[in-house]
Each structure stands twice: as C-alpha cells, then as structure tokens.
Design goal:
By secondary structure, the protein is of the alpha+beta class. The chain folds into two domains: 62 residues, Winged helix-like DNA-binding domain superfamily/Winged helix DNA-binding domain (Arc Repressor Mutant, subunit A, Orthogonal Bundle); 167 residues, Chorismate lyase-like (Chorismate lyase). The chain is built from eight helices and eleven strands. It has a six-stranded antiparallel beta sheet with strand order 5-6-7-10-9-8. The chain has a three-stranded antiparallel beta sheet with strand order 1-3-2. It has a two-stranded parallel sheet with strand order 4-11. β9 and β10 form a beta hairpin. α1 crosses α3 and α2 packs across α3. The protein binds 2-acetamido-2-deoxy-6-O-phosphono-alpha-D-glucopyranose. The site of 2-acetamido-2-deoxy-6-O-phosphono-alpha-D-glucopyranose has 15 residues, from α4, β7, α6, β9 and β10.
C-alpha cells in the first residue's frame, strides 16, 4: 500500500525544513498545491501535520514558517522523561536494542573495565507527543546492573529504574555537545533527510565515584536548542576526558 499523498508531501517538506533555518517562510497551501500538482486539501493536510509536529508554525495574516525549536534540552542531570513532562509533552520510546555487547576499547576506558567484558547497550528512539526527538544509545555496566534486560524500556524511564530499583545516586555528570551529521541508519527514525545536521550530546554520569552511564543522544539540529542554568557550583567528578570526546 502506498502512503497517502499528504504524507508523501509532508515527508518532502520535512526534508526541506531540515535544511532551512528557523523562520524561513514556507509556500502557502495554494502555492504548494500548484507547485506539486496536489489538491489544496492535500496541501493543507500536509502542512497541518507539520504544524502538529512542531516543525512549522502558522502566524495569522503572515503565513507559515519553519518553527523555533519546540523543545529545549536543559544541561542538567535530568532524564528525558522528566524533561519532556516538565514541558507538557507526553514522552514515549521505541526500543531499538537492548542487550549485552562486548566492550570496545573506548567503552572499557570509560567504565574502567576489561576490553571484551559485557556491557549493556540500550538504544531507543525517544519521542514527545509521538514525534521523534532523539535517538539515545546508552552503555551501562552489566555487572553493576544485572537484570536490566528484564525491563520494558519502551515504557520505563532508565533513570527511574537506576535510582529506585538499583539505588543509584547521581552525584555528578559531564556532558559534551557537538554538531554532527545524522547517521544514514538514523535518518528515517528521526524523520530527517540523509545528511541532516544533528546535535550529539554525550553524557557520562557518576554514582558513588564510578561511571554508571555513558549515553549519546542524537537530536535533529533543526528542532532543538540547548539551555544551561548557570550556577556557581564546582562539580568534582572522575570522568575520563576521552569518554566525552570519542565517538561510539
Ligand atoms: C537524558 C540523558 C540520558 C539519559 C536519559 C534517561 C541527556 C542529554 N541525556 O536523555 O543520558 O540516559 O535522559 O532518560 O539529557 P529516561 O530516564 O527517560 O529513560
């Protein structure tokens, strides 16, 4: 079965939007219908869909524009679930992978374990109100958190599980933010075109002096902004610098 016309049109527009700066004006329904040979109703549905996803914004009497980022990611040790709820969005996830992988050199250095030792890899597509927001790849110590694979992380918050079920007390974290290009394999899930710009947030978090989590979160750059609360606090962590710089 082929996708309805308005979906195809929305996909096409989504790709354009991914490459357009915030505030770029988009063609009107009439213009779009003329340009692409679809009915005005189809053009309207496609635009409606993108407005609903927060990619476009309608301004009465002015037109439709590439929206400002709808979600701002705070630079704090909070979870995706909390961040989204705090902003009035309903968080959800699609599980992409959950299982042990052998630690490569990078992972081994981050966790101070032997190369080849099993570590849990949890990969999820994170969504807000059903709209893809990020792909998160989390590495966790299998020996410190045995049985993590019994959880349904499509439903569960990783931080809730770690804190409540495994007694983790996050005491420090470090995060590096870098610009990148979306991996081909991630483009479709994130609903961006291949080659689109992304922001990668690499987080290492520490509990009781040990690194417990190493997560890379990949956000489409066109939809996000980052905000940091500036506080006069010095966090003393023991995070290996290489962990934050390397790519997984
Ligand atoms: C946030 C964290 C990520 C953590 C996840 C847990 C950033 C950049 N990253 O996305 O490191 O694994 O929350 O989310 O903020 P959860 O508890 O909702 O599963």
């Amino acid at each position: 079965m082929t996708a309805p016309k308005y979906r195809e049109l929305a996909d096409m527009l989504r790709k354009r939007i991914a490459q357009s700066p915030i505030g770029t004006s988009t063609p009107s329904e009439r213009q779009l219908a003329e340009d692409t040979g679809v009915s005005r109703m189809t053009a309207r549905r496609a635009i409606d869909e993108l407005v609903k996803e927060g990619l476009l914004t309608r301004e009465v009497g002015r037109g439709t524009f590439v929206a400002r980022p709808t979600v701002s990611v705070p630079l704090q040790l909070t979870s995706f679930t909390e961040d989204m709820r705090a902003r009035g969005h309903v968080p959800s996830s699609r599980l992409l992978h959950l299982g042990d992988v052998p630690a490569n050199e990078q992972v081994a250095t981050v966790f101070s374990i032997e190369v080849g030792a099993p570590v849990m890899l949890l990969s999820r597509l994170r969504m807000a109100d059903g709209v893809p927001m990020a792909i998160e790849r989390s590495h966790l110590r299998t020996d410190v958190f045995p049985g993590l694979d019994r959880y349904d992380f499509a439903e569960e918050s990783l931080y809730r599980v770690l804190i409540e079920d495994y007694g983790v007390r996050f005491e420090a974290g470090e995060q590096v933010i870098r610009a990148g290009i979306v991996r081909d394999a991630d483009a479709e899930s994130l609903r961006v075109s291949k080659g689109a710009a992304v922001l990668e947030l690499v987080r290492v978090s520490v509990s009781r002096g040990s690194v417990v989590e190493w997560t890379t979160s990949t956000y489409p750059a066109s939809r996000f902004e980052l905000s940091a609360r500036i506080a006069p606090v010095t966090v003393q962590g023991s995070v290996p610098r290489s962990a934050l710089r390397a790519r997984d």
